[in-house]
Amino acid sequence: MKRIVSTSIIVLSVTILIFTASCGINDDAPERTAATEQQEINQAITNLLTKGYDVDTTELGVFYIMNKPGTGSYPQKSDTCYLIYTGFFLNGVIFDASAYYYKDSIWKFNYLDVSLIPGFNDGIALLNKGAEADIIIPSSLAYGPGGYAEIPPYTPLVFSLKMRDLRPKQ
Fold it and tell me: Max CA-CA distance within the chain?
């Protein structure tokens, strides 16, 4: 009987050890740092420039490519924006899109009246009615060293933006 109990305890201990190890942190994933993020951004910008894109930077530090100019004024606080957006990582994986939430893909909101990451607000400020742009937001203007939900720490975000309409505050 003692042998059965002893064997059972050993088997149980090994099972718990294996289970615990398999549920641990994935050591295969490299730790993200500000330096690795900067390398990724530099490589992405270099790739874009090599392909002939005109990449500019806002004063805040958001990189952007203006794909289609719009007309009229730019958004001011409380103006109503009608925006189509897709958010993805530098590797092309989509993490968010207005099409997920709105049948016509258009997100209607009042500029600067909703809480958004600073880089996204900065990118929207570039768009007047009909404008289309792609922006790269460094993590310092997004979710930084802590990340958020499925967004890892020190992860730059890319957004494709289309301002379908822009109406002044009434």
Answer: 87
